[in-house]
Amino acid sequence: MIDFTEKRAAGPVIRLHSADNVVVARVPISIGMEVPSEGIVSRSQIPAGHKIAARDLRAGEPILKYNVCIGFAAADIQAGTYVHSHNMDFQEFDRDYAHARDYVPTPVLPESEQARFMGIVRANGQVATRNYIGVMATVNCSATVVHRIAEAFTPELMAAYPNVDGVVALSHGMGCGMEMSGEPMDLLRRTMGGYACHANFAAVLIVGLGCERNQLDALLKDQGLEAGARLKTFIMQETGGTRKTIEAGVAAVKAMLPQANEVKRVPVSARHLTVGLQCGGSDGFSSITANPALGAAMDILVRHGGTAILSETPEIYGVEHTLTSRARNREVGEKLVRRIRWWKEEYSPGRDVQINGKVSPGNQMGGLANIFEKSLGSSMKGGTTGLMEVYRYAEPVRQPGMVFMDTPGFDPVSATGQIAGGANMICFTTGRGSMFGAKPVPSIKLATNTPMYQRLTEDMDVNCGDILDGTATLQEVAQRIFEEILQVASGTRSKSELLGLGDHEFVPWNIGVVS
Q1: What does the pLDDT look like over 45-79, one tens digit per residue?
Q2: Beta-ladder partners of 269
Q3: Among residues of the chain, what percentage have pLDDT more than 90?
């Protein structure tokens, strides 16, 4: 078994646990190729990142990766054979949640020893990593108006305000034609409220139409928001229509800019960092390089007092017991199980979605056979510290440490919930190559493998493929990720920011009935 924390990868395959009955091809493996470390000869052509049977498997036998069941042999499988969805069955199996059994408190460094970054301290004590002005729509009917307002603030105009990162429009396809009360409206308003209060916004303008179900006054009351110098509002039907609302909105934002530009960055503790964890376009190396390296970086962050938000509930399904066993108490573990059961028993029955087994074609091509195998890697982003709390979508995250937020697996929706909850940084792992940004927070992209990193170097910030190549240990890459987080939090632009990504990724969870 290779311990990537201390050792560097070598050889044609990677053994992830001594009890595993499959190993992962580190490089493409041809028929007849010897695998000395396992004492087997390949019977198949096996792409890099895919699995090969390390011994004979009997039909129905659990297939183990990291000593975790990721499926069952659909038939007898000989040692050296390619193992993937064609000869694996996806079946439910009993899991021991063992709530809090393995929980160990993580010692937090004294503040004098905690890492520092150059942050923006708001008047209310919040700490920002960026300094934007937001223009938010209450309903799709005001979407064009908020975009026109934001588009008025060209680079030439913004040059006079060097400390403001930009003006960003936050539009969505909801706000009317939906239930007026209940969870769908609660989710939308909670998301909007979280953005309106986000530390990375110096000020926010909210624009409504006037007759929508998501009424502006009700939104403000529900979220405890009050109009003032930092929060302005317009209703199009009262302001005079499209053109006049755009003009009024542009004037309002111009009035916000001088004060927004007065901010200064100062040294602050890393405990003020809240990192939303995302993965997309995952492959067979995600669970070997980028995800565990990001998890190890989050272990470092937690020791420095910071917060890591693991999410994407369908993508922890099948391995949720590895989280509940290290929950800080039974109540936290049971919260997670309740969210899993809601997804499985209420939201997804009969639907062709990944929690019912299938993963995307890209995941399949990358070496992931089913949701159990994908979840195994996805959950690693959270690291190894205790699970401190479980939050509903877009709820404010108050608890330091590693926490979980219930979100879909779709990255823009998931990240929107994390940002609404207070994330001031996103770290996004990818094996196939996902392009993503999420204003008003910076996004750091972590590549699982070197070939993809080299193809997409303009989009990728950190190459975790060095672990696979044997040129760095997992812990060395984790430290590199942590240092990258501190630099980007201090104002260094991530690759997605340099490309201008993030203007269209405000996507609240549309969970309800549309009428």
Answers
A1: 999 999 999 999 999 999 999 999 999 999 999 99
A2: 116
A3: 87
24 — pLDDT class (breaks 50, 70, 90): very high
Specify the CATH number for 132-261; select among 3.40.1000, 3.10.620, 3.10.450, 3.40.50: 3.40.50
Amino acid at site 321: H
Structure token digits, residue 486: 């501190």
Contact 60, 73 (CB under 8 A): yes
Query: CA end-to-end span of the chain, whole Å?
Result: 55
Looking at residue 108, the DSSP 8-state letter turns out to be P
Q: Please give the single-letter amino acid code of residue 170.
A: L
Q: Is the pLDDT of residue 415 over 60?
A: yes
Cα separations (Å) of 323 from 392, 409, 471? 16, 17, 31
Strands 231-235 vs 274-279: parallel, antiparallel or unpaired: unpaired
Which residues lie below 8 Å from residue 123, measured CB to CB, with a gap of 6+?
Answer: none
Look at the pTM and tell me if it is higher than 0.70: yes
Please state, in angstroms and rounded to a whole number, the distance separating the CA atoms of residues 436 and 410. Answer: 12
Q: Which residues pair with 276 in a beta bridge?
A: 309, 426
Domain positions in the chain are 13-89, 132-261, 267-499
- 279 contacts 428 by C-beta, under 8 angstroms: yes
Is the Cβ–Cβ distance between 56 and 43 less than 8 Å? no
CB neighbour list of residue 348: distance below 8 Å, 6 or more residues apart: 314, 355, 356
| Cα 169 from Cα 172, distance rounded (Å) | 10
Judged by average pLDDT, the poorest of 169-183, 350-364, 367-381 is 350-364
Segment 147-158, tens digit of pLDDT: 999 999 999 999
The Cα 346–Cα 451 span in angstroms is: 41
The two beta strands, 265-269 and 116-121, are: antiparallel
Give the CB-side neighbour count of residue 187, counting CA atoms within 13 A: 24
Report the C-alpha gap between 321 and 329 in whole angstroms: 14
Class of domain 13-89: mainly beta
* Domain 132-261 in the same topology as domain 13-89: no
